[in-house]
Amino acid sequence: MPLELGQPIPDFSATATGDTTITLSELRGQQVVIYFYPKASTPGCTTEGGDFRDRKAAFDAANTVVIGVSRDGLRAQENFKAKQDFNFELISDKDETVCQLFDVIKLKKMYGKEHLGIERSTFLIDQDGKLAQEWRGVKVPGHVDEVLSAAQALNSQ
C-alpha cells in the first residue's frame, strides 16, 4: 500500500551506523527526513550526503533528524559516513525492508541493461509520525535546500 500525505508511517526498526538501531516511533516529537540513495561512495550520493551534512545545524534548529538509507552493507555505510564526515546516521537496508515500506525500489536502466535499484527519494515526516512531504526521482543540485525549507516551514506551524 503506497504511503499517502498526512497518513502515519508504519513503525520500523533498522540497523544503522554508529552501532545503533533506528526505530521510527522513538523519534516522535521531532521531524524526520529519510533520504534514500542508490549506492554509498558514488558521486551523486556523496554530493547529496555532503549537502545534508553541511546543513545539519539548520536541520537541528528546525527540530529535524536526518537519516540516509541505501541497500549497502553496514561496513560500506560506516566507511562512507567516516570518509565523508557525515554527522547523521545511515541505515543499511540490505533486505530492503525500509525501501519496500517507502516504495523506492524501481526498475532502472544502466548501460542498456535493466535492474532493480533505489530511486533517489526523500521523505519528510512530521512530529506525529505522519508523512508531510515526499520527493521522488530527486535531482541532487538544490534538493537539500528545498527539503530544509519544507522542514523549517513545517516546524513553524
Give a verbal description of the structure.
By secondary structure, the protein is α/β, with parallel strands linked by helices. The protein contains five helices and nine strands.
Q: What tags apply to this protein structure?
A:
five-stranded mixed sheet, 157 residues, globular, 9 strands, 5 helices, alpha/beta, two-stranded antiparallel sheet
- Read across the widest sheet, the strand sequence of neighbours is 5-4-3-8-9
First-to-last CA distance: 29 Å
Please summarize the sheet with the most strands. Answer: 5 strands, mixed
What's the gyration radius in Å? 15 Å
Helical fraction equals 25-40%
Mean pLDDT across the residues is 94
How many beta-strand segments? Answer: 9
H and E order? EEEHHEHEHEEEEH
Low-confidence stretches: none
Strand content: 25-35%
Backbone structural class: alpha/beta
Which descriptor suits the 3D outline? globular
Number of helices: 5
Short account of what is shown:
The protein is of the alpha/beta class and 157 residues long. The protein contains 5 helices and 9 strands.
Secondary-structure topology with pairs:
Blueprint: E1 13-16, E2 20-23, E3 31-36, H1 43-54, H2 56-61, E4 64-70, H3 74-84, E5 89-92, H4 97-101, E6 105-110, E7 113-118, E8 121-125, E9 131-136, H5 143-155
Parallel strand pairs: 3-4, 4-5
Antiparallel strand pairs: 1-2, 3-8, 6-7, 8-9
